[in-house]
Amino acid sequence: MTTSTLHPMLNVAVRAARAAGAIINRAALDVEAVRISQKQVNDFVTEVDHASEAAIIETLLTAYPQHGILAEESGSAHGNPKSDHIWIIDPLDGTTNFIHGFPVYCVSIALSVRGRIEQAVVYDPSRNDLFTATRGRGAYMNDRRIRVSKRTEMNQCLISTGFPFRKGDDFPKYLRMMSDVMQRTAGLRRPGAAALDLAYVAAGFTDGFFETGLKPWDAAAGSLLVTEAGGLIGNFSGESEFLEAEECLAASPRIYAQLVALLRQYSKFQGVAPRGTISSRAEQNVETQEPNRGTEPT
């Protein structure tokens, strides 16, 4: 999908993401000079986060002054919080990676219209990879249509996750979850930027992703990429509530069903949904899926 055929609001979001990416790339040339502060233990914010966020907000509100903003650093301080149109922004997802010069981080921008994600951009400035989606129009990476992986056997799958790092996180529980997944898959990865993890599920680079503790700006854009690429996203119980739930699971439909069966026991929603509901829904969905037109990675 070329720039000329993008939805106008998505076009503005792409422009905002690229402006933020330029700021991030300039700062990455001398990351030692970047001023860093700590929000809480192991949770960092840099002047680059703030500059990136300011560039995004300025671009979006110049085009759409009546829209609202929900951003990681400034919250709802900008725009019109009562608007039906809310831009959900993570100006630099993977700040810890960025600080260390580890080139796995991205810009994430989503548009929520009356509570439903309608537009999504995830931009990786290190690789100049642009992931975009408009509801009902598919997901794209650099103008190429992407689809979730076609693998159906867990033992062939590469799964990504995020490790707990905040005080009060349940480390023993996460180690049990990791152990359950690692023993049944081809590998478990922790890249360190959830928005990019979700984009990679959408592109079929990984077969699934799970993490707890995510905020709406971590997962909003990636969630639309996944569903528009033919995947499923929800919480560990397989229900659709995940954006505010701090519990996120995404995968191709058949792998999603198998991961739900594995991770349901660790869900805060355990017992809420009838057992087996999501598995049958996932099986139905997979039958109607279009074939993956992308190149399946080896």
Automatic annotation (TrEMBL):
EC main group: hydrolase
CDD domains in the cross-refs: IMPase
Alphabetical list of Pfam families matching this protein: Inositol_P
Molecular function, one GO term: inositol monophosphate phosphatase activity
Assigned EC number: 3.1.3.25
Domain of life assignment: Bacteria
Cofactor: Mg(2+)
Reactions it catalyzes: a myo-inositol phosphate + H2O = myo-inositol + phosphate
Family to which the UniProt record says this protein belongs: Belongs to the inositol monophosphatase superfamily.
Record's protein name: Inositol-1-monophosphatase
Organism listed in the record: Ottowia thiooxydans
